[in-house]
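note to self: dont lose this again. the chain is below, predicted strucutre after it. 717 aa total, dont forget to put it in the shared folder this time
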Amino acid sequence: MTAPSSALELWIGVECTLNRVRDTWLDQLRVCGHDRRHEDLAMLATLGARRIRYPVLWEHVAPDAPDRHDWTWTDERLGTLRDLNVQPIATLLHHGSGPRYTDLLDPLFPEKLAAYAREVARRYPWLTAYTPVNEPLTTARFSGLYGVWYPHHTSDASFVRALLNECRGTVLAMRAIREVSPHAELVQTDDLGKAHATPAMQAEADFQNERRWLAYDLLCGRVNDKHPLWSYLLGAGATSEELAWFAHNPCPPDVIGVDYYVTSERFLDERKGRYRAHHVNATHADVEAIRVYRRPAGIEALLMETWERYGRPIAITEAHLGSTREEQLRWFESFWHAAEGARARGADVRAVTSWAILGSFDWNTLHTSFGGHYEPGAFDVRSTVPRPTALAALLRGHADGQAGQHPVLASRGFWERPDRFFYPPVGEAPATSEREGTARPLLILGGGRLGRTVRRLCEERGLEHRLLRWDELDLTDAAAVRAWLDRHDPWAIVNTAGYGWIDRAQQLPGVFWRATAVGLAVLARACASREVRLLTFSSDQVFAGDRDTPYHEGDRAAPLNTYGRAKLEAERQVLAFHKEALVVRSSASLFGSADRSGVLGSALASLRAGRTCEVDGAHRCSPTYLPDLVHTSLDLLVDGERGVWHLANQGASSWADVTRRLAQLLNLPGDGVLDTPRETLEWRAPRPRFSVLRSERGLVMPSLESALERYAADAAD
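---
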């Protein structure tokens, strides 16, 4: 076999799920704001993608009656995409069951969908590609077998009926579309994983591995009495006549769209006692293979399985990972390499699609409710204007034929690392990655709580790093700093030295000023000359606290103490000498660290021991969870963000109120928390009475309540 002659293409896709849960329709486009931001399209076009998977959703256009259509939104959006020369692949149903006048079990569902498809084709005869039903097998499982989405059935009969309706609807829809546009392509998507198993569970794995192909097999007319699932389908209520209809009316995909997630491959194990309760059902454990199995197939092997089974053009139609930024980059890069590898082996792989290009909300609960859990994509919509992430730059590079360049790509993704396992691993161990040990490090300055948290989370994220204590390098010694940078060759530096030393700075003002303001100027010059990224942390202590509304990045700073004055001068020096530096202002009131120290750790220890605790109740601030601060700061660093950012958990409180809330979450006596004046707390430095932070650049941190709930869950262990 020879590799395809045309170059691998970049496609993109907007997460547009509109599914029904009971009587509630959950609309991803509304929650992410794309329904209101027409200007997104010009921004997306800058990525250089050839095609975009885009919604022309039945439930949006004809929600109330099949003969009443509102084309306003789709007219505007599709017209703009046409002007931008980005070819839409029109999606008519995306994990939906249709408008309220039908559902997946409606006997007339196929004909109703086809009637809508005909109207779409008549209105937009220039459209060249369609996905009438996104992921029919997956949607049928979630709606008919697992009961997650409407109509919430849990039987093989409902699963099979929903799947047959979706596939028949696809055939009829494409027939109707091609009456208007004879050359319109069917791009048929589905989640394609694979089941692995212990010997005792291999029969179930074999069944699931046949079932995953069913939608494609039906559309290709491959289901007959010789098909491995023929008896299963008949036993679940299908008739031989309706199955034969597909064989007589084949509608093979012009492009088979393979969607693959880190959870797509599963491991089945009858030894239920080895696993946590949420991975166990009545008969066995069903676990993400990546968390227990040493040798998952991976996307390249699945592309080859698809090619060998069907011999038709293939595209990866969803490549997305809800994780930290460098893992998102590694995930997409691995998909691009896998597609190139499959092409080199003769498979006709046309494209890789960066999915959820604007991010997605609440897939951590399988889109059954909206609680605000957001996974960014190439753009982060939590800003007034969607902000491009490092993934956007990676995609532009691939669209231009360039290999990925970001330093974090030299390290392995978590799905390749030995620390990925949640359970004792099974299966044969793979060979060691050739990339081991080749990554440039990230250097961390400062060994305090913040520095130690940065180190711990760098380990979790697979970021090669070195930690240097604040007293191991004199930052004011320019020659020593240059030699240190030459020796370690970092791609970035994270400075945490002296963070939170408010009273110490007041006691030793000259020492702190020299180390902070003067030392950071030297470091910034050295980093700028070597194009090394620099992240340094500043503080809410740069503000006077003479107001009752949150401080934004552009507000006037007027520090009350030595610590705040030194931090403010360090900000100015860093940004003067290193235009690309990132300065993160956060709260002096940090909680949550590896050693559970600090104000809250001590207070909770006292309450658990039956003692009272004295806590400041007068000052209003933005108490901030250390892991949230560090994760978000590292994401922004990887993105190449610059300038001043305010990062604090969203909300305002005092230490006393936070402690009472944690006591409530942990069933501890809240009346043991005593509001204590600053004189009793023996503070040496004055503090701003009010230092609540809020960002005008983007609300990228979780809420304070969410942070406290997660801290309490960790503290309860």
